[in-house]
UniProtKB/TrEMBL annotation:
<dbReference type="Pfam" id="PF02798">
    <property type="entry name" value="GST_N"/>
</dbReference>
<dbReference type="InterPro" id="IPR036249">
    <property type="entry name" value="Thioredoxin-like_sf"/>
</dbReference>
<protein>
    <submittedName>
        <fullName>Glutathione S-transferase</fullName>
    </submittedName>
</protein>
<dbReference type="Pfam" id="PF13410">
    <property type="entry name" value="GST_C_2"/>
</dbReference>
<dbReference type="InterPro" id="IPR010987">
    <property type="entry name" value="Glutathione-S-Trfase_C-like"/>
</dbReference>
<dbReference type="InterPro" id="IPR036282">
    <property type="entry name" value="Glutathione-S-Trfase_C_sf"/>
</dbReference>
<dbReference type="InterPro" id="IPR040079">
    <property type="entry name" value="Glutathione_S-Trfase"/>
</dbReference>
<comment type="similarity">
    <text>Belongs to the GST superfamily.</text>
</comment>
<dbReference type="GO" id="GO:0016740">
    <property type="term" value="F:transferase activity"/>
</dbReference>
<feature type="domain" description="GST N-terminal">
    <location>
        <begin position="1"/>
        <end position="81"/>
    </location>
</feature>
<feature type="domain" description="GST C-terminal">
    <location>
        <begin position="86"/>
        <end position="208"/>
    </location>
</feature>
<dbReference type="InterPro" id="IPR004045">
    <property type="entry name" value="Glutathione_S-Trfase_N"/>
</dbReference>
<keyword id="KW-0808">Transferase</keyword>
Amino acid sequence: MLRILGKASSINVRKVLWTCREIGLDYAREDWGSGFAATGTPEFLAMNPNGLVPVIVDEDGPLWESNTICRYLAARHGRIDLLPTAPRARAEVEKWMDWQATDLNGAWRDAFMGLVRRHPDFQDPARIAAGTAGWNAAMAILDRRLADTGGFVAGDGFTVADVVLGLSVNRWAMTPLAGRPDLPAVAAYYDRLAERPGFREHGRNGIP
C-alpha cells in the first residue's frame, strides 16, 4: 500500500491526499513533521534530504516534492483527465502547477506567516502590507485566467493543477487580509471546487 509521510494539516501533504481521493487510491498516512516524528533524522533524510513533508513510498521507493508527487500518481494510474499525455495539454497543466510553486507561493509567505502563523520574524507591518499586495496581485492573475476559461485553470476539465491551486485559493480566502479585492472568477472557482469531496475533505475544511 502507498505510504504518505506527513501531517494532515500540511498544505503540501493535503495536495497528495486530495489527489489520492480523486484517483481512488488507498494509502496509509504517517504523522511526520512539526509536532510529530522528526524529519531531521537519518531515516527521514535518506528519503528526502531536504527534511520536508510530504514523502511517498511505494514499490519503487521514496519520492518527494508535492507537485511532482501529484503528477506522478496521476500518470502512474493512467488518469489522463488529471494529467494529459499530449505534450501541449500536459504543459498547460504543469505551467500552472509551476506557477503555484514559485510565483504564488513566493507572494503569500510574508502575509501568511505574519497574519496566520503569527511568527515573530514576520511581524513587520510594512512586510505584511507588501506581502498582502503581492499576494492579491498574484490572485488577480489567477482570476483573469479563470474568467477566460470559465471552468478550471487549464481549461474546461479539472486537473491536478486545480488540486494545488485550489489549496492555495483556500489559504488566501482564509487569511485575514486587509483590502482583499473582489475576484469573482476566483470566488466561483472556489465554490466549484467545493462540489468535489476531495476538496471538502482536504481543502475547504477549516485549515488554511
